[in-house]
Amino acid sequence: MKAVIMAGGSGTRLYPVTIAVNKHFLPIYNKPMIYYPLSLVMLLKIREVLFIVNPQDLENFQKLFGDGSHLGMSISYQIQEKPRGLAKGLILAEEFLNGDTVCYMLGDNVFFGHNLIKIMAEAKTEIENNGGAYVFGYYVKDPERFGIVEFDEEGNVKSIEEKPKNPKSNFAVVGIYFYDSKAVEIAKGVEPSNRGELEITSVNEEYLKEGKLKVKLLGRGFAWFDAGTHDSFLEAGEFVATIEKKTGLMIGCIEEIAYRNGWISREELIKLAKPLAKTNYGKYLLEIAKEG
Questions:
Q1: Which of 51, 101, 270, 274 has its Cα between 20 and 30 A from that of 204?
Q2: Residue 247 burial (CB count, 10 A)
Q3: Class for domain 2-140+173-248, per CATH?
Q4: Cα separation of 55 and 53, whole Å?
């Protein structure tokens, strides 16, 4: 399985800040927003990652991540000339995926929860072994803003609808999607919505029609932030700060994950930490290196 992280878009919900800065570079507490989805991909032991980015942001993404070799990964980039919807990202990733299964993530979503990686790994295994699509639902108070899943009395998925005016439930599909190799072709067949976008919900609907869509609900033990709004952005930062201060452990620290995965050596971790030695982030990495 490979990973694709959607990191383009115009960030209009965070204007005026994002007029000059891509939202994915904004700090969620002590790290760029984009570190958080990348860290989940890394925790799933996926080493091949494609970022879909705006033309004007490519250089900064390359400055931040390069080719990923310093993390023991292979990171590449695909330019999105203008926002066309999330399903368009799958089409843009066709050459990179080359028929492989995909973990498709939104670059502005932050997740935290007990056994989160275990649950995501189960979804990954399910798609690799049996195909189809696997997504996650989360209870929200404002379902009009999201893709919403409706269930029957037995808990089976009955429908899925993008930003409904009359929501049939309060369970939103969050920004983690697992798809088999058919996802790209399905995305190619999606018709633009009333908003003029190729909606990811339309891809999920097609899998649902084929009886190949699985939805797992994330309960009270999970936190999900769609950090593309001012309030959610602030809440995500405060949440990460609280967890890290209470536990002494970082969330979304990509260098630590690469080291613990065995993708980089202790010496390589120290090399990455030294330029940051005066910061709390660098000091944390050096402490991790001492453990070894």
A1: 51
A2: 9
A3: alpha beta
A4: 6
